[in-house]
Design a protein that fits this description.
Blueprint (H helix, E strand, L loop, with lengths): L2 H39 L2 H11 L8 H16 L24 E5 L4 E5 L6 E6 L9 E8 L2 E4 L10 E4 L5 E5 L2 E6 L4 E6 L2 E11 L8 E10 L10 E8 L12 E5 L10 E3 L3 E3 L1 H10 L5 E5 L1
Parallel strand pairs: 8-16, 10-14, 13-15
Antiparallel strand pairs: 1-4, 1-7, 2-3, 4-5, 5-6, 8-9, 9-10, 10-15, 11-12, 11-16, 12-13
Length: 300
């Protein structure tokens, strides 16, 4: 082989080696650019979100965070890029039809309102401006018949409405901004704002023989559970209904309620005397977000 030929072969080999090295470095750089995305997917924020879902409460995206996401998507579109569709796994996702709308009627301080068995019927009692626990009397009107409002109160048995005159000067009206729906089969309650779910909370329900009553109720009182018994946990949302099937030997009263617990391991089980029992952390959220008079629907 002549010197000229050997020189050409050596030059070709050196060029091939250079091309192979450049390709390898390019692949490494591409992988390096991808690694931060994989790390972000396993960030503590994501782990906290997953833990929240496992505990029965869907993670909530704040309006500020939602605005940032929207701004980033708009900026990407303006640059001509294609933003990936946002995944909707938060509580605002519509999962079923919204509960029936209701309005709140507060009995004015120092006044009382007549309660009737049916619209325009005989008076069966009066409701003062304070409940038996001392809370302001706020009635959730879940049905209307002309000027008459059907309200769920402790003066009537489960499933039977009391009726008040909407024109009574003793009442002050306000819209019901939120409502609660309890699904016993899923052992979960949902807090609705309008037509969207904002919170989902896992609960214990009534055990066999003392099943949780179904029907439409309202929140009558927001109480400190520690003043009654450690059994009730941090706090209590007392409801207008009662438990007709109390366990043998039970001495804790018959009012239906959503309350906390000193036994968090019971959440998700059929283990209560009829009330809906949730984790104390979840009850504290509901205490802040649920006003008196809020309508509550419990169904199988």
């Amino acid at each position: 082989m002549t010197l000229a030929v050997r020189t050409l072969v050596l030059a070709a080999a050196l060029m091939a080696l250079a091309l192979t090295t450049a390709a390898s470095l390019a692949g490494q750089n591409a992988r390096a650019r991808m690694e931060p995305a994989a790390t972000e997917a396993l960030s503590p924020t994501r782990e906290r979100t997953q833990a929240g879902r496992a505990g029965g409460v869907e993670a909530e995206i704040s309006p500020r965070a939602a605005s940032r996401v929207k701004a980033r998507r708009s900026a990407s579109a303006a640059r001509g890029g294609r933003a990936a569709p946002a995944r909707s796994s938060g509580p605002s996702r519509r999962i079923s039809s919204a509960p029936a709308r209701a309005s709140l009627m507060r009995v004015r301080p120092g006044r009382s309102v007549a309660v009737r068995a049916r619209p325009g019927g005989r008076v069966i009692g009066r409701l003062d401006s304070r409940t038996e626990f001392g809370s302001p009397q706020v009635l959730g009107a879940v049905k209307t018949d002309g000027r008459w409002l059907g309200v769920a109160t402790t003066t009537r048995s489960n499933g039977r409405l009391a009726w008040v005159d909407a024109r009574s000067s003793a009442l002050r009206a306000a819209p019901a901004k939120v409502s609660i729906r309890a699904d016993l089969s899923r052992r979960r309650i949902e807090l609705w704002r309008g037509e969207k779910v904002t919170e989902r909370v896992s609960v214990a329900i009534g055990r066999p023989g003392s099943s949780t009553p179904t029907g439409r109720f309202t929140v009558t009182d927001k109480l400190d559970g520690r003043k009654f018994s450690p059994y009730y946990g941090c706090c209590v949302l007392a409801l207008s209904g009662t438990q007709p099937n109390l366990p043998a030997g039970w001495s804790g009263g018959n009012r239906l309620a959503i309350h906390g617990t000193n036994d968090p391991g019971s959440i998700g089980q059929a283990s209560s005397a009829g009330c809906l029992r949730a984790a104390n952390s979840d009850l504290r959220k509901l205490m802040r977000r649920v006003p008196l008079g809020t309508p509550v629907e419990i169904r199988r």
